[in-house]
Fold this protein.
Amino acid sequence: MIDVQWEDALTAWRASLGSEFVITHPAALSAVQTTTFATRQSVPAILRPASRQQVQECLRIATRFRVPLYPVSSGKNWGYGSSVPSRTQTAILDLSRLDRILDFNEQLAYVTVEPGVTQAQLQEFLASRKSNLWMDATGASPFSSLIGNTMERGFGHTPYGDHFAHSCGLEVVLPTGECIETGYSRFPNARSAPLHRWGLGASLDGLFSQSNFGVVTRMTIWLMPAPACFQAFFFRCDQESQLAGVVESLSQLRLRGTLQSAVHIGNDYKVLAGLQQYPWHETGGRTPLSAELMAAYRKRLQIGVWSGSGGLYGTPRQVAEARRLIRAALKGKVNRLAFLDDRLLSLSLRYAKPIRLLTGWDLSQTLTLLQPLYGLLKGLPTSQPIGSAYWRKRTPPPTDMNPDRDGCGLLWFSPVIPATGEEAAQVRAAIAEIMLADGFEPMISLTLLNGRAISCVVSICYDREVSGEDERAMACYRHLVERANEMGYYSYRLGVQSMEEVDRHDSYGELMRQLKTTVDPAGILAPGRYEATPRTRAATAGH
Amino acid sequence: MIDVQWEDALTAWRASLGSEFVITHPAALSAVQTTTFATRQSVPAILRPASRQQVQECLRIATRFRVPLYPVSSGKNWGYGSSVPSRTQTAILDLSRLDRILDFNEQLAYVTVEPGVTQAQLQEFLASRKSNLWMDATGASPFSSLIGNTMERGFGHTPYGDHFAHSCGLEVVLPTGECIETGYSRFPNARSAPLHRWGLGASLDGLFSQSNFGVVTRMTIWLMPAPACFQAFFFRCDQESQLAGVVESLSQLRLRGTLQSAVHIGNDYKVLAGLQQYPWHETGGRTPLSAELMAAYRKRLQIGVWSGSGGLYGTPRQVAEARRLIRAALKGKVNRLAFLDDRLLSLSLRYAKPIRLLTGWDLSQTLTLLQPLYGLLKGLPTSQPIGSAYWRKRTPPPTDMNPDRDGCGLLWFSPVIPATGEEAAQVRAAIAEIMLADGFEPMISLTLLNGRAISCVVSICYDREVSGEDERAMACYRHLVERANEMGYYSYRLGVQSMEEVDRHDSYGELMRQLKTTVDPAGILAPGRYEATPRTRAATAGH
């Protein structure tokens, strides 16, 4: 379905970028059209600019010929749509060739990057400089983009876990091709550009997060000085009824600053999917894994109903005091609480085998799960969590995991709820009820974003190769959204399948549409992204 | 200069608000037209709506008759223009009657307020509830608006000192009269509306800070749980050369989280102006107070070249460890370092008189200066710092201080600089040189906003009743801006006299103009606020 406008645009892009960077090969297009759930959007081309100037050119051409572009940094937005554009017949603007680290300052603790810079790349950069600074990492792929995640307002595990709150100085190419810089960056020779978020006058950074108002081509990320002392803590609850008390205690510690970073609490299903694939053999091929069977697995694998982790950062005495306060706060509320540091971890790794031989306790299995989490608390990216996307597959995950390619089904639903025990327990119960009824395991993790709010990330994991599962998973997603909204909870981030959640067709929506028209008069940048699809179009989407 | 449009608008406003709330009395207009420096803007009327609905009405009428309105919450924006609008012939939209505290939650630690709610009002509210939560306060008047200060991105002294970063869930009336809510507030029954900053989709809060895009009629403010233990620390440097080392040490402590709140460092001139008025008698009426004379006063009054203060918050052990780290970091870098807590303060107050009688040391003078600072570190508003606006007056400050009314001259210039010792010292030297040459005392305070950036607040204090001083002070302000910009430093906030600093006539400025036209097609909301005055208009301003 390539029409004249597209032909003209492709010709202009080829002239601008060089033919090899305007990709229309069916295999390549098929790859970017594929995500971890059913979509019908088609992609006519992939553009691969190498510089901010080329990004501007791409947008100017798109505006001239009125053909839409969808920016993608690394395309690893798994569970939310990967690189699939929000509307059909949209070309991909692949920013992965803009992969330079533009500035770095050890004393003032920041790094300035382009959108193609990945978590792994920054980690290697810091290691090669023997830097004393830590980055924050998410459990997403090490090869996911720092800017991509930040603009989606993703979060990680260290005190710098709120990525958007620890970024500043954006360079943004507007849909018209104009380029602006935010904060102090826009002033000549501004010494505080990488050091201060707001700048002078209205602060525009928020406008370019979770929107389709511009393409971010540069961003400064604040880095955390490595603490003199680091310890992780891990805890376990064996009863569902313990959740409320634990959430209350931890949110108070977070509110009071004893816990400086997000605490993650995962339920049994979530932990099991991190350890192994679906037990097809033992369940006789039936799904979902019932609550009763899950209980049996908990016992066998020594998993709690809930398992939590967090990090302590500071001087040895600051960490010791935090440890004391956590022990006191969780006393009688958890079944196990353990602290881990570098020394203890390396000892455990060394003696896991002899311990197993002597006691029969398989420490190495615990470490398989703990080690990546422990690393994340220190800002080290890991590919371990991606493995759980293969939960319902009948074959084991390959070495080069790629959930999109491998037919993994994964839909994330992430409502934000108040950090109270009562609401956490209510939400947990509602999710479990809906998901088990719909035939999926209720995999839930709760992240204490601050002392007031919890991000509840729910994974619908399935096998796209099983007929009907795509539809059943999407129905389950809708049931979850509907129920959560009824209860007063709303997503913190949206997948490409559900952008209409953002719009209530009220004066706010009207303002957003006006702003969009102002910055993007031709409507060419990521149409449908964080905006409702007009009904007439939705009905005719696909081809 | 009231024309037909204005007459029609006034009639409509009177019908909407009631005649007594549309004020055109010359004395009232004269008061709001007066600030702490020379302005020529005239105000044709003051509107005093009592509700958000009336605010909407006021804006609809303004849009209909194309007459401009300038929103003012409490009018205490001293040093930056008080309630004087950015352009002439603009009516004041006085929001002080919207003074309700709409929501409060002790467990989740927040309060939701209207724009008329003042610092003092919130403090009394918390005290009356016997709340265990602390607010953050600025050194501005206790009767200044919380929303006004937050939307100007003001800062205070506790760990919640970045007011804008600790607010969310805005209700905003747009210039057209439409009303929107930001963050999760815009969704029905959203439980996390007061608990999470970003919400879903583009985050618009920044758009309404330091701008003329909307009137904020509601905001949630996060409050801080009172720590189990609080101590303040105070230090003094007797040599100018010590500044760099102190800034380096403190910014590292701030970056590493040992210091959770802003540290304020004030120079000798700043401290002196807090203690007394200009020594007219001893200087024989000559100004400025030279560096040599300042040195003599330092010796006589036991003031350091720099004096600093900060707060420690936590459990007794957390505070003890912070104290140890501060002692170690400042060792050999300051001449005095003292810690103060509630017990020590009440003892000192009790024994100040006998100590003076016995030793001759006037402890009470020190306490006069320390006590309000100590209170600010605990979030207690104070009117003490306003006294220094009377520095150059020939008569003592009255009990009911009002710098606007009393002819106090005050211009604030507040560039943000990197938190490095070298740059702090360079900026200090440049400011002192310019101000002394221009005939003013270089009153400087440095606030470590975070571990990376310092807000440098410079006060030009003078007596408006002295002929020619208004012009000399404004010239000095321009010299400071010019030199700072050359060095790469830019204001964090602007006075009404200097809004053109915000605009560089580039693609950013163009985008801002487009956005303004979109939200305010009639151009009636605070024209000229955080936007450059077109040259043609500037030439004809005044009347």
Summary: The CA atoms of residues 419 and 452 of chain B lie 5 Å apart. The mean pLDDT of chain B is 94.
